[in-house]
Amino acid sequence: MSKQQMTGAPVCTWISVTDASGRTHMEARWAVAQATAVQAA
Fold first, then answer.
1. Residue 29 in contact with residue 11, Cβ under 8 Å?
2. First and final CA of the chain: distance in angstroms?
3. Are 1 and 37 in contact (CB under 8 A)?
4. What is the pLDDT of residue 6?
5. pLDDT digits (tens, 9 = 90+) for 7-38
6. Spatial CA neighbour of 4 closest among 34, 28, 25
7. What is the distance between the alpha carbons of residues 1 and 37, in angstroms, rounded to a whole number?
8. For 27, left (φ over 0), alpha (ψ -120 to 50), or beta?
9. E strand map for the chain
């Protein structure tokens, strides 16, 4: 038996990005959370 959990809310993550001139900065990336299956015991 499994239960589906889906929030549908966007999730923000920060990633380190290096540009063409070698400078590093942080960028925010938004994604919609995926559905996850939770196994019942």
1. no
2. 8
3. no
4. 58
5. 678 889 999 999 999 999 999 999 887 655 55
6. 34
7. 10
8. beta
9. 2-5, 10-18, 24-32, 36-39
Give the whole-angstrom CA distance, residue 18 versus residue 24: 4
Q: Would the pLDDT of 41 be above 60? A: no
In the beta sheet, which residues pair with residue 24? 18
Query: Residues 33, 2, 40, 4: is their CA dihedral positive or negative?
Result: positive
Q: Which one-letter amino acid corresponds to residue 36?
A: T
Q: Which amino acid is at 38?
A: V
- The pLDDT score that the predictor gives to residue 1 is 46
Q: Which distant-in-sequence residues (6+ apart) come within 8 Å of 23 by Cβ?
A: none
